[in-house]
Amino acid sequence: MNVLGVYRPGNTVLHRLPAGVKFVAMGVVILVLSLAVRSLTALGIATAGVAAVYALAGIGPREAWRQLRPLVWLLVFIFAFQVVFTDWRRAVVICGVLALSVALAAVVSLTTRTTDMLDTIVRALGPLARFGIRVDLIALALALTIRAIPLMVEVVREVDEARKARGLRPGPRILVAPVVLAALRTADGFADTLTARGLD
Fold first, then answer.
1. Percent over 70 (pLDDT), the chain
2. pLDDT at 159
3. Domain of life here (predicted)?
């Protein structure tokens, strides 16, 4: 299965950029999207820009959709909420900015090895070690978080397939409870593993 944010080997410009540069660029672009995109026209321009980034990274439309598909139910919920309390244009803009932000984060993880990301984060947090902060434990927590993302995407897929097999209609209530229980079991498994290795 092709899961969210799994590194795809390549030799594009984005693949060759240092992880730190990509992190900073992603943060700046997401901040600009959040502050500057206020209309459907601006959202369309931003969407074209993100599509160009995917093209530059050699990632096709099918792969891009696989990155956003796990977000669909959340976007539907946010859209409905915004339509009720604002209007449909505002709802489209908010959901669009959220989807573009996730797409940018996905393209960074698709073009950056996990080890490179963690090394960059550890170096950036290095000065905190002077104050007694365990940077290595922060790196471990980040590694577990990154590992949990594809696991949870797989869980959502399995729950949805079970729903289809039982002939149930899609809906948040049908999906949320099993996914939350699976997430808690995964967290317990991580905790047991860390405890077994002497980490509290």
1. 86
2. 79
3. Bacteria
pLDDT in tens, 60-88: 888 888 888 878 888 888 999 999 888 89
User: Which residue ranges make up each domain of the chain?
Assistant: 1-112, 114-200
Structure token pair of residue 172: 């948040």
Cβ 67 vs Cβ 103: under 8 Å: yes
* DSSP structure class, residue 128: G
Distance CA 14, CA 31 (A): 20
Fill in the DSSP letter of residue 58: T
Helix (H, G, I), strand (E, B) or coil at 184: helix
Residue burial 12-40, b: 16+ Cβ < 10 Å; e: rest: eebbeeebbebbeebeebbeebeeebeee
> Residue 100 class from Cβ within 10 Å (0-12 exposed, 13-18 middle, 19+ buried)?
buried
Residue (of 142, 160, 164, 140) closest to 152 by Cα position: 160
Q: How far apart are CA 83 and CA 77, in angstroms?
A: 10
pLDDT in tens, 109-118: 889 887 888 7
Residue indicated by tokens 């696991």:
151
Max distance between CA atoms of the chain, in angstroms, equals: 57
Q: Would you say 179 and 155 are in contact if contact means Cβ atoms under 8 Å apart?
A: yes
Q: Look at residues 181, 168, 172 and name the one whose alpha carbon lies nearest to residue 73.
A: 172
